[in-house]
């Protein structure tokens, strides 16, 4: 499974990229707004740090303006993926952009049917939102499992980006479910390599070594 960072915080991206753990980055308007930086400037900076796909989202709701925004976004760097919301207008934009060879990430996918529509329209990536389904007592993980199963059955090449990932268990579960990618917030990512037993083990080893060294 590939790991994307779901952030526009350049310090987080640099820190975790330095470990060789980042295959790509996803952003959305909320994530960009959180940084309080110019959209174009921050996306361009991210594309210089991460060589893999960097998703930048359109804000228009009509097809024509979405396409115009997409054409502008892809000029910023070679590794830009245009993030498009899962609507009728969005699907129309994805259909046109895919025929132009522009990579798209259909976002806000909450059902198997929506994932199938995104794939059929030509999406490079489809992003099911786990956490937001869990928030309303639905089952985000089941959606990822169902998408994996149906995409395998019909040999659909659209890659599944498990998004709205909130916990270590989410990451582990979507890996087991065969998600192509998990996109992970910068605050969650460091928790993936930490474990209290690792910390306790290191402390114990060092204490024993100190005791032994003094003898
Ligand atoms: O990748 C989508 C993600 O940014 C949404 O996450 O936690 O706001 O549901 P969340």
Automatic annotation (TrEMBL):
It comes from the Bacteria. It catalyses: D-sedoheptulose 7-phosphate + D-glyceraldehyde 3-phosphate = D-erythrose 4-phosphate + beta-D-fructose 6-phosphate. Coiled coil: none annotated. Pathway: Carbohydrate degradation; pentose phosphate pathway; D-glyceraldehyde 3-phosphate and beta-D-fructose 6-phosphate from D-ribose 5-phosphate and D-xylulose 5-phosphate (non-oxidative stage): step 2/3. The active site is at residue 83. Its main location: cytoplasm. It holds the Pfam family TAL_FSA. Keywords: Cytoplasm, Pentose shunt, Schiff base, Transferase. It is an enzyme of class 2 (transferase). Its EC number is 2.2.1.2. It is found in: Cytoplasm. NCBIfam families: fsa_talC_mipB. Transaldolase is important for the balance of metabolites in the pentose-phosphate pathway. HAMAP family: Transaldolase_3b. PANTHER family: TRANSALDOLASE. This is Probable transaldolase. It comes from Enterococcus xiangfangensis.
